[in-house]
Amino acid sequence: MMKGQGVNKVKEKERNELQALYEEMRALRQAVHEEGNALYAEWKPGISRASFQLSGKNLAYYLALRRRDIRPLQGRLSKWGLSSLGRTESKVLQQLDAIVRNLALMSGEIKQLEDYPKTSEKFPGRKKLATEANALMGDAPNHRATRIMVTLPEQAAEDKDFLVRLLERGMDIARINCAHDDSVVWLKMVENLKEAQKTAGKSCRIYFDIAGPKIRVDAVSSEKVKPRLKVGDFFFLTADASFNDLKQYPIIVFSESLNLFDELKIDSPVILDDGVLEGRVVEQKPQGVVVQVGKVAKAKGIRVKPQKGLNFPESTFKMPILTEKDLEDLLVAVKEADILGFSFVRGSKDIVAIQKTLAEQVGSEAAAAIPLVIKIETVEAVNHLPELIVAAASKNPLAIMIARGDLAAEAGFLRLSELQEEILWICEAAHIPVIWSTQVLENMVKNGVPTRAEMSDATMAGQAECVMLNKGDFVEDGITLLDAILVQSQQNRSKKTAQLRALKIAKKAWRKTKK
């Protein structure tokens, strides 16, 4: 075979491969367009907020794309130096169109491209996400793109100078947790924070976090002074405060929220304190259930204390999204909050109930202007995330909080990292800002020294528009460290996109070759 013939055969093979890839991408683009439009048509009647219309449509396109396994296609695109579809979230159709156009040029299918369907809409992409984040959370500081939220301790109600220091260290949003303290304390926090902002010369959004229907341990009965549970131990879980058969059950855990024990079946998992203890139901009784401990965080066992959270990953309790306490707390929060957060939202019906309650309290127009944060804490919420986003963002400015404590307890630690990535992707497709929360630099904030794993986690948190620190004795130092981590990490990464700055190691290698 002549050398020229061999080259021609290679070129022909490559051209055929490109033409096949072009046809496949063109068909994919058309399917995503049609399926996305059909899904958006279902959402459109409920969208009263004009600024969410294009975002909602882009989300629909993204869901249409991601319902497919596109991994084989990604490798083939990368081979030709084309986008592998790994960063399509913020403007799906434009990315697909760009790939199709490039393939048409490379394969010589320009004539076919002339009758290629084009969308008249231009999606704003990440600029839209940044605009939404600024409107809801306030402008990011000049030196970093990610905001810092701090949960205020009771000290904030007594010490204005403490709040000034938090602001000077880098706090951008102050969180008031309505699961703790009371309205007298919260209002004093707000008063001190407003004064502190004047002193520090810095603005700060106020975020009220409504507690929601979290199931907690209300009381523990035991003949032991400090009751502990180890692997293999049993305890009785009940909603009956009068039940006290301590001879048969040495530890009785009472939770008044568990008024529907029918949902707890034999072998139903029971999680205590965000996964510190895991057990399963082994027996049902008229007054409650017997739980056997399967795992504990410490070999010597753990103490069972009131106010610790209870999770039931495979059980659904029909509880209203707003408790009586929540309704009372909202009367205070709607007057003082810049942002309202809601816990344990499970589906769009919960969103509708929240919006209806706000409209009843402040009027429909004022209610629609309130920025909402929906906390994703259950697998059920993750599974319904697109409909949650559409229901909330159709009427209100919206952010999503990845509440990793309860989410890890519900989904398991193995799935947590996967789920938080998926939440980030879907929110970016809908141009919805994200708050990364729970145990960020926890050891640093509580004990003054970060763990190595915490440093990596805080770096990953820079993918979100806001990162939340919880309260602790060293929270001021925690803010300083988190600020430094976020500034450094944004030099290397923006969302899923690596920022290809000059690497010191590459410069050193280059200098060696010059010697």
Using brief descriptors, characterize the structure shown.
alpha/beta; 16% strand; 19 helices; 515 residues; globular; seven-stranded mixed beta sheet; eight-stranded parallel β-barrel
Provide the residue-averaged pLDDT. 89
Gap from first CA to last CA: 46 Å
Q: What's the tally of helices?
A: 19
Biggest sheet strand line-up: 1-2-3-13-14-15-16-17
Could you tell me the strand content as a percent range?
A: 15-25%
Number of strands: 19
Describe the protein.
The protein has 515 residues and is α/β, with parallel strands linked by helices. 46% of the residues lie in helices and 16% in strands. The protein has helices at 3-43, 53-66, 71-79, 92-107, 110-114, 126-137, 160-169, 183-200, 324-336, 348-362, 364-368, 379-383, 385-393, 404-411, 413-429, 442-447, 452-460, 475-489, 504-514; strands at 147-151, 173-177, 205-210, 219-222, 228-229, 234-238, 251-254, 269-272, 277-285, 288-296, 302-303, 310-311, 339-342, 372-376, 398-403, 434-437, 466-469, 493-494, 497-498. α7 (160-169) packs across α8 (183-200). The mean pLDDT is 89.
